[in-house]
Write a structure and sequence with these properties.
324 residues, Rossmann fold, eight-stranded mixed beta sheet, two-stranded parallel sheet, 10 strands, 39% helix, globular, disordered C terminus
């Protein structure tokens, strides 16, 4: 079994479900499930892909952007960090979906590898936006899948944004900095139960009430819900059967790569090695950010993602001409 801090965090969450405990932190204890809102249920759509009902939601209208979340999470993790990017910007159709075994999309024994997961993503795109050009955003494992999409459909993609992407699939081959905590509210952490803290602290380098509340709202529900047997099966077949970075030609569309200086899960140095593939890339290594960069440096993510969208918009006429 692939053992990572994310596995440890999931184990801590599972343990709390059978022993709920309320702290003084002003939030729902981990042992209680939030009732999902009527609005969320009303927005939820599904399309059957490879025999699996893939749940998704579409926000806004215009140029499509496909959002691919990370391992053990669901679409809420990207909704939380990406929707502020579009708060004052129209013309973009954001497509958020749950990967099999995560969120509302059920597991399938036939989807037990990253190759099979990528096949679902590719067929989902073909089903929801058939024949259309699109941009893609991938976070963590979603960044690995996004590069797989680029390798398979390079002529269809206008731009790509990667947030703390997995570059080296084998963890023992990653160039990782040591885990470090940059900012900590000791009084707040003391108000959490031990299990709560165990679930929260492994992947955050900024540990305070603000990051906790977003962690609890956007990540914990998915971690609770994830199909652990399926994820363990995928973890054993995590590496693609092909090299997603062995492109036949450089991708000339606008790219954004965001990494955390303190990201001890996927690192920041391996990501720079992709730069030759992306001549129109902005690479940003952010201090005070670990693998939870999307929460810890939300303001910078919003600004940099908006600038990336400006570049995609500027270049889209060129891409449209190439497609004719």
């Amino acid at each position: 079994m692939l053992v990572t801090r994310r596995n440890a965090m999931a184990a801590a969450v599972v343990a709390t479900i059978s022993a709920p405990e309320r702290s003084e932190a002003g939030r729902v204890p981990l042992g209680e499930r939030r009732t999902e809102s009527t609005n969320e249920a009303a927005e939820d759509r599904q399309v059957v892909i490879n025999g699996v009902p893939v749940h998704y939601e579409s926000r806004g209208s215009g140029q499509p952007i496909v959002m691919i979340h990370g391992f053990t999470l669901d679409r809420r993790s990207l909704i939380g960090c990406m929707e502020p990017v579009f708060s004052s910007r129209g013309g973009w159709r954001r497509i958020y979906f749950d990967l099999p075994g995560m969120g509302r999309t059920p597991a399938s024994a036939a989807i037990a590898s990253s190759d099979a997961m990528l096949d679902v993503v590719l067929n989902f795109i073909d089903a929801v936006i058939p024949g259309k050009r699109f941009s893609v955003v991938g976070q963590s494992y979603g960044g690995y899948l996004a590069r797989g999409v680029l390798a398979r459909k390079p002529a269809s993609i206008d731009g790509m944004a990667l947030i703390c992407p997995v570059v080296v699939a084998e963890r023992d081959r990653r160039d990782l900095p040591p885990h470090a905590v940059i900012a900590k509210d000791a009084a707040f952490l003391a108000s959490l139960s031990g299990a709560d803290a165990d679930a929260f602290t492994p992947n955050f380098v900024v540990q305070n009430r603000s990051t906790w509340l977003r962690f609890q709202e956007e990540l914990l529900p998915a971690i609770r819900r994830a199909d652990q047997p399926l994820l363990e099966s995928i973890a054993r077949r995590y590496v693609f059967s092909f090299d997603p970075d062995a492109l036949t030609r450089s991708f000339t569309g606008p790219v954004l790569v965001l990494t955390g200086r303190q990201d001890s899960d996927v690192g920041y140095r391996d990501q720079w090695k992709m730069s030759e593939n992306f001549p129109r890339a902005t690479f940003a290594m952010l201090d005070r950010a670990g693998h939870g960069l999307a929460i810890e440096q939300a303001g910078l993510l919003t600004v940099l993602a908006q600038e990336w969208l400006d570049r995609v918009t500027e270049a889209s006429g060129h891409f449209a001409a190439d497609a004719r």
